[in-house]
Amino acid sequence: MQTRITELFGIEHPLIQGGMHHVGLAELAAAVSNAGGLGIITGLTQRTPKLLAQEIARCRAMTDKPFGVNLTFLPSVQPPDYPGYVRAIIDGGVKVVETAGNNPQQWLPVLKEAGIKVIHKCTSVRHALKAQSIGCDAISVDGFECGGHPGEDDVPNFILLPRAAQELKIPFVASGGMADGRSLVAALALGAEGINMGTRFIATQEAPVHENVKQAIVAATELDTRLVMRPLRNTERVLHNAAVERLLAKERALGASLRFEDILPEVAGVYPRIMQQGDMEAGAWSCGMVAGLIHDVPTVEQLINAIMAQAHALITERLAAMLR
Ligand SMILES: Cc1cc2nc3c(=O)[nH]c(=O)nc-3n(C[C@H](O)[C@H](O)[C@H](O)COP(=O)(O)O)c2cc1C
C-alpha cells in the first residue's frame, strides 16, 4: 500500500509504532521496521545520550530498514539533556524523529539540517496546525482513546481525524485505538495516511517487556482503562489496578489542591518494575482502550501482515461489493 506516509518515510506499510517508555527498545523498533512498518526507539528511556547512541547502534545492527527515535518534551524543573539526545540521533544517522509533548520548534532547524523528517504527535487540531506552521513533516493525531497522554480536550478519533483532514496540508496518521485492518481502513477513510499504534505493539512476541504485561493487555477489556492526573492537567490513560485506585482516591480527597508530590508513589519510577519485572501492581502505566480489541500475542510480522491482509480484503471485497 502506498500513501504519503509510506513515501515520506520510505517504508512498505503505513504503520508506525509510537514511542513507548521502557517498551520502545531496539528489539521492538527493529522488528516493526523489518516487517515493513516504522519502528521507533523511545529516546528518554535511555538515561543518557550515550546510552541512546548505543541503542540506536543496536537497532541498526538488527535492521537495515528506516527506524525513528521518539523525543518527548516534558515540562520539568530539571530537563533531560535534550541537546545531547538530539546529537546522538543525528550522529546515529537516524532519519525520522517522532516528537511529542511540548512544541518542538526549538529543535526543528538542527533536525532539518541533518535531513531528518519530523512527525509530531499531538491531541488537537490547533496543536497540529501549529506543528505544520513551524515546519513539521507529518502529524500523529492522537485521539481521546489513546494509551498515554490524550491531552485535555477529550475529542475521540471519529471527530478528530476528519477535523484534521479539513485543516491540515501535511500528511497525518491516526493514533489511539488502532489495532487491525479495520482500524487502518477506517483511518484512511477519515483522511489519515496510515496508523500509529502503541498498546497493540506491546502485546507482541518481540516487545521487550515481561509476559505479565502482555497478558494484562490480553485480559483487559475496553472498560478497564482510567484517566489519572486530570487535576494536574497532565491526563494519562492507564490500565486499572490497585495503585490506580489509590491514586484516584487521592485525587478525589485532595481535589484542586492535589500536587504531583502527592502521587509520587503511584507514578514515579514505576515503569521498570512493571515492564521489566512484571510487577503489575507497582503503579500506573499507560494503556489504551484498544486493549479490548487485543486477544493474542503474535509476532510483529504476523501482526503487520494480518493488518495489511485484512485492510486489503476490506477495501477490495467488502467495500467494493457494496458499490456493485
Ligand atoms: C506503555 C506506553 C508508554 C508510552 N510512552 C510514551 C512516551 O514515552 N512518549 C510518547 O510520545 N508516547 C508514549 N506513549 C503513547 C504511544 O506512543 C501512542 O501514541 C499511543 O499508545 C497510541 O494509542 P494506543 O495505545 O491506543 O495505540 C506510550 C503508550 C503506552 C501504551
Automatic annotation (TrEMBL):
Entry keyword set: Dioxygenase, Flavoprotein, FMN, Oxidoreductase
Pfam families noted in UniProt: NMO
InterPro entries: Aldolase_TIM, NMO
Keyword Flavoprotein assigned: yes
UniProt GO molecular function: dioxygenase activity; nitronate monooxygenase activity
Record-given protein name: 2-nitropropane dioxygenase
